[in-house]
Amino acid sequence: MGFLDDIEPLKQTARAELTAAPDLAALEQTKGTWIGPNGKFTALMKQLGTLSKEEKPAAGKLINAAKVELEAALASRREELELKAALPKEPTDFTLPGRRRALGKLHPLTQVTDDIVRAFRKIGFAVADGPEIEDEYHCFDALNTPADHPARDSQDTFYLATKNGADTAPLQTPAVAAVCDRRLLRTHTSSVQIRVMKSQPPPVRIIVPGRVYRRDNADATHNPTFHQIEGLYVDKNVTVGDLKGTVEFVFRELMGDDVKIRFRPHYFSYTEPSYEIDFTNALVKKMGKDWLEIAGCGMVHPQVFETVGYDPEVWTGWAFGFGIERIAMLRYGINDIRLFYENDVRFLKQF
What we know:
Blueprint: H1 2-20, H2 24-34, H3 40-46, H4 56-86, H5 108-121, E1 126-127, E2 133-135, H6 136-139, E3 159-160, H7 174-179, E4 183-185, H8 190-199, E5 204-213, E6 225-235, H9 240-255, E7 260-268, E8 271-280, H10 282-286, E9 292-300, H11 302-308, E10 316-323, H12 324-332, H13 345-348
Parallel strand pairs: 1-5
Antiparallel strand pairs: 2-4, 3-4, 5-6, 6-10, 7-8, 8-9, 9-10
Helix pairs in contact: 1-2, 1-4, 5-9, 5-12
């Protein structure tokens, strides 16, 4: 039984060395010495073949029990050493005040967009979205914009290069693609109004916030990329009075209860009659002005309804659109639109 008598002393020695390992590297080396593939306890298992049939079960049981005990000691020591390695090398004064991480904020344009959406949702409008890469049909033709309209010139609109009209298929039907095969970056979010009306019957009550693109030189009041929000309301017996009431409600929600609104006759190809919207409040007066232009609007042109399959003898509606940057500049007293896009933290953290 000399073989069996050696197991317990070897186990105690191995356990003492594992427990005394000063670091993880030393612990791994000790593990290899005792219970690794070439370790001493592995060698003992190989010697079982030299024992008699009666001695093998007891010896195998003792060796396996010892290995289980040593693996538990190994795991315990590894946990202690990993915790020790994770502790700071220098002493830490836990009585010092904690360091708070700076919290990020929403971009001012996002804040204004959220406020606009919130105001319209109070009166039952849903938010719609659509592609920023558009085609001429949805951006111009369906909106009753003639082929010779200045807005369709390459000096005003970003057109994308196409090859034989092959890349128009995802956005339009083959019949439409045969007529209008030029893609472009949308100049307004009115194209989404067309998509919504083509996809559902009236009534419709939506707003469409989103990024738009026009070929403007960047200066204090212009940028080739900016944000716009448009609205559309289609139902039976909708009037200009509904439009005026909605606009007044929204701008008072955004700019204060002292806001006053006026409509000026204007021309848009997709509305008839059409209006420019001016507003005034204490802020405008402080700027030394009586009125400021803020948006365009009007009653949806019957031709637009016919294009999307609505009967203009049954349905009427209004549409409007305005720039989100314009609202943000007025609200926060910002005099240069480019500040919104420069990502200067000194500017953004003020909001």
